[in-house]
Amino acid sequence: MIIKCYNTDEEYLLFLDIEFNNLDLVQYAGLLFKRIEEDTYQLMRSCNIYISSQVCYAFANYTSITNNFLKENGMPLESAIDLIENDFLKDIPLNQLMMISHGLKNDRIVLNRAGLNTNIKGYCTFVNARRILERQNNLSLEAIANDAGYYLHHAHNAFNDV
After folding, report:
1. Apex CA 158: angle with CA 154 and CA 160, to 5°?
2. Under a CB-based contact definition with an 8 Å cutoff, are residues 117 and 84 in contact?
3. In terms of residue numbers, what domain contains 64?
4. Cα(49)–Cα(96) distance, integer angstroms
5. How many CB atoms lie within 10 A of CB 21?
6. What is the secondary structure of 61-112 as a DSSP string?
7. CB–CB of 48/31 below 8 Å?
8. CATH number where 71 lies
9. What is the pLDDT along the chain (162 residues), one digit of tens a residue?
10. Which distant-in-sequence residues (6+ apart) come within 8 Å of 22 by Cβ?
11. Which among 34, 41, 131, 160 counts the fewest CB atoms within 10 Å?
12. 114 and 77 in contact (C-beta within 8 Å)?
């Protein structure tokens, strides 16, 4: 996958989304891109990790991620952090990385609480959509994607949303 991102200085772009239950990380999904020429980035790695934890009914209803699914497909939080930091983001200089998320402030809180380093330059698509679209409502990821002509299949699953 090749994307265009204008006016960026970073060598790497990390598009990420998470799902969380009461500020506890449940799913981490990321697409890591590397600059291949000016304004052009190519997908380098992808990551989709579920944490083996218990989630409440409201979370399962909202995301369709159930306790049974997490029991079968999740991993301990410590293993997930190790996989993210020492495999997915291995050899990536954090000072050359930009983290892009829809709701970056909250995502940083959840990721920090989980033990992940979020001291990385960031870009929040929610904040910037508000500024660019000059509106205060209809700023959900799904609404913005629809405005741009994209349909989010199975919204509220981090890998689909990222």
Report:
1. 45
2. no
3. 2-161
4. 24
5. 21
6. HHH---HHHHHHH-B-HHHHHHHIIIIITTT--GGGEEEEETTHHHHHHHHH
7. no
8. 3.30.420.10
9. 999 999 999 999 999 999 999 999 999 999 999 999 999 999 999 999 999 999 999 999 999 999 999 999 999 999 999 999 999 999 999 999 999 999 999 999 999 999 999 999 999 998 988 888 888 888 888 888 888 888 777 777 888 888
10. 56
11. 131
12. yes
Residue 126 backbone phi and psi in degrees, to 5: -65, -55
* Predicted local distance difference test score (pLDDT) of residue 30: 98
pLDDT at 144: 83
How many structural domains compose the chain? Answer: 1
DSSP state of 132: H
Size of the chain in residues: 162
Contacts of residue 27, Cβ cutoff 8 Å, sequence gap at least 6: 18, 19, 48, 49, 50, 51, 63, 65, 157, 158, 159
Give the closest residue to 124 by CA, choosing from 46, 109, 115.
109
CA 73, CA 43: separation in Å to the nearest integer?
Answer: 25
